[in-house]
Amino acid sequence: MTMTGLQGKVVIVTGGARGIGAATAARMARDGAKVVITDLLDDEGTKTAIQIGGDFLHHDVTSEDDWQRVVDTTVERYGRLDGLVNNAGIATGAPGTPIENETLDSFERSLKVNLSGVFLGLRTVVGPMKATGGGSIVNVASVTGLSGFPGVSGYGASKWGVRGLTKIAATEFGPHRIRVNAVNPGATLTPMNEGHVQLGEGNFPPAPLGRIAVPEEIAEAVSFLISDAASYTTGVDITVDGGWTARPNG
Ligand code: NAI
Fold this sequence. Notes:
This protein is α/β, with parallel strands linked by helices. It has helices at 19-30, 42-52, 64-78, 104-131, 153-173, 215-226; strands spanning 10-14, 34-39, 55-58, 83-86, 135-140, 178-185, 237-240.
């Protein structure tokens, strides 16, 4: 299916070298968006960019200077910036570590990449988007930001923060015709969680749909929110979790 309203849009996807970011970049490029992939992983990022016909820029989302360079380079190259997918994220600490055993370093690293990285992205793109009359931003949060999921204190707190920041930015940026939304993926088969989950009914509590997601299924929701098809949608999050949080004890 073709997604309307992506043709010609200039969109930055952070953490786009692999996983959900790469699938999202490919999805949007297929419908005519000009996609700039950014990541710490130069080789994988360059390979993915070549595959989809996009650009790659090295980027650490925790660095203010990197954000400025990435946005300036994109605007210099294309004359505008229409979209940002704040997708880069890390899961720190061994999964299932209770708060009692979690280190401050691990907790704070999650916040720095997953939450401060999103804040820096929002702050850096708002000027250029205002200048060209609007834009659309999607923050990739998580189902761990919807309930008290045990054993992921840093990661879960960062994703609750991302959902909150999404709503704050939506109210601040709305008057400038910049939409800000979030997507909450459920368990998805990507390099981040290889070894912890599997595609069928594995060691992860099963979703009603009986399996975990593939990255392309998350990419559909992100691409919709970036596109003009979502022109009146802002300040919300779309959960794509196979019904996992709809379970009676979800
Ligand atoms: P992944 O590990 O396959 O991809 C994440 C990408 O972000 C990697 O290419 C990595 O190099 C990049 N990255 C990490 N730190 C960075 C930094 N400081 N600056 C720039 N890039 C950085 O993981 P996946 O699964 O594709 O995750 C994408 C997003 O989806 C993350 O925000 C994650 O928290 C979220 N998510 C993933 C779920 C899953 O089950 N895979 C479930 C819910 C949310």
